[in-house]
Design a protein that fits this description.
Elements: H1 2-35, H2 40-71, H3 95-99, H4 101-109, E1 113-124, E2 131-143, E3 147-151, H5 152-155, E4 161-166, E5 172-181, E6 186-190, E7 212-217, E8 225-237, H6 238-241, E9 249-253, E10 265-267, E11 273-282, E12 285-290, H7 291-301, E13 319-320, E14 323-327, H8 330-339, E15 351-356, H9 361-365, E16 372-376, E17 379-380, H10 384-392, E18 398-404, E19 407-413, E20 416-417
Antiparallel strand pairs: 1-2, 1-4, 2-3, 3-6, 4-5, 5-6, 7-8, 7-10, 8-9, 9-12, 10-11, 11-12, 13-20, 14-15, 15-16, 16-17, 16-18, 18-19
Helix pairs in contact: 1-2
Pfam families: PDZ_6, Trypsin_2
Subcellular location: Mitochondrion intermembrane space; Mitochondrion membrane
EC number: 3.4.21.108
Length: 420
């Protein structure tokens, strides 16, 4: 309290000293004006001398206060009374470091994310003479000796295709598809490499709606593309999506999952994989396979010899069309109509084409992602099971009626024998 009073008294003395020059200068100016012999330059000189005296008095007062405070045992100098401004030069308390939780999760998980490319040996690029890329996707390393987890639809293609895996550091390796389970849409790929970074598998059972998640992958062959969002639903049953032969409760998220993201990890803020990116229906509606389901798949193949595929129970693929599709249930139709102004309002069902493999019969015939299949050869299509049933038949050519935006059209597709 006494120190505060002393500081107040000192400030008053400084202000009084500063006021002295103005009074002195006024008297000097008055005296010169009475004498009438001094010029204007002398008046300025008198005014400046007065201010100099005031500043000198203030400095003397500061010096005296400093000496008195030192005698009282206070080591602080008179400079402590002046305001100070400092710039933060370290990361301690940095908002970037404190709030960039997405970047922290990516830093942990991105080194284990790989790009997977599917090439057709029977078709080569005109300029490079390399096998033509027909599809691509993502995956992530779960074993340092080169075991990669991905989606089955990423690596299942024509029999005469080859798999290439590119690591984040740019190295490229041929990949061997070891285990495939179309029913769960999961597969493993192995490359001959060791001491690789791996991604920790988390738990999807305790995932909560509204929780932040990050989707990593390689859309359009762009390595480690990152999108973020929240979990919309933790248990979106495959029956709700009209997926035949699958018993999976998908994770629904608004994190963008494009075609190249398929097979990549969906990670939580601890950098753990809690899902495998599977499909995007429309912006804001994407789905991922829960990591707990993938753990069951990995447990089943652990004791199975390498090179043998997992059970292929599920829809029979006697003929090859080259699309990945999603049945349009009433719930999905409502969401699509609410989110997209270009979505046809007269559609009451059908199958949404969300991926077309390049060079496949569907691609050659003119099918495009986003098309809605309503009829095949005049027969109504309500679910993906109806398309599978058509592919079991022997009809050589398929007339497929589709909605493309607001336009209704028909394309002709000639499926291939899957055994070719």
């Amino acid at each position: 309290m006494f120190r505060v009073l002393r500081l107040v008294n000192y400030q008053r003395s400084v202000l009084a000293a500063i006021r002295i020059p103005s009074q002195t200068s006024v008297r000097a100016i008055q005296s010169t004006s009475q004498g009438g012999n001094r010029d204007q330059g002398d008046r300025r000189s008198g005014r400046y001398d007065g201010y100099s005296i005031g500043i000198a008095v203030a400095l003397v007062g500061l010096f005296g206060l400093s000496q008195r405070r030192n005698r009282e045992g206070n080591r602080a100098s008179w400079c402590d009374l002046l305001p100070t401004v400092s710039a933060r030069t370290t990361d301690v308390g940095s908002r970037r470091r404190e709030f960039n939780f997405i970047a922290d999760a990516v830093e942990l998980s991105a080194p284990a994310v790989v790009y997977i490319e599917i090439r057709d040996r029977q078709h080569v690029d005109f300029f490079t003479r390399e096998p033509l890329t027909v599809s691509n996707g993502s995956g992530f390393i779960i074993d340092p000796n080169g075991l990669i987890l991905t989606n089955a639809h990423v690596v299942i293609s024509k029999p005469h295709t080859m798999v290439t895996v590119r690591l984040p550091d740019g190295r490229t390796f041929p990949g061997t598809v070891e285990h495939v389970d179309p029913a769960s849409d999961l597969a493993t790929v192995h490359i001959q490499c060791s001491n690789l970074p791996t991604l920790k598998l988390g738990n999807s059972s305790d995932l909560r709606p509204g929780e932040w998640v990050v989707a990593l992958g390689s859309p359009l062959a762009l390595n480690n593309t990152v999108t973020a969002g929240v979990v919309s639903s933790t248990h979106r049953a495959s029956q709700e999506l009209g997926l035949k032969g699958k018993d999976i409760n998908y994770i629904q998220t608004d994190a963008a999952i494009t075609f190249g993201n398929s097979g990549g990890p969906l990670v939580n803020l601890d950098g753990e994989a809690i899902g495998i990116n599977s499909m995007k229906v429309t912006p804001g509606i994407s789905f991922a396979i829960p990591i707990d389901h993938a753990k069951e798949f990995l447990g089943k193949i652990r004791d199975r010899p390498a090179g043998r595929r997992a059970s292929t129970d599920g829809p029979p693929f006697r003929r090859y069309l080259g699309i990945t599709m999603l049945s349009l249930t009433p719930a999905i139709l409502r969401e699509l109509q609410q989110r997209s102004h270009n979505f046809p309002t007269d559609v009451r069902g059908g199958v949404l084409v969300w991926k077309v493999i390049q060079g496949s019969p569907a691609h050659v015939g003119g099918l495009q992602p986003g098309d809605i299949i309503t009829h095949i050869n005049g027969k109504e299509v309500k679910t993906s099971a109806d398309v599978y049933d058509v592919l079991k038949g022997t009809t050589k050519s398929l007339a497929i009626s589709i909605h493309r935006g607001q336009q209704l059209t028909t394309v002709k597709v000639d499926p291939e024998d899957a055994s070719e």
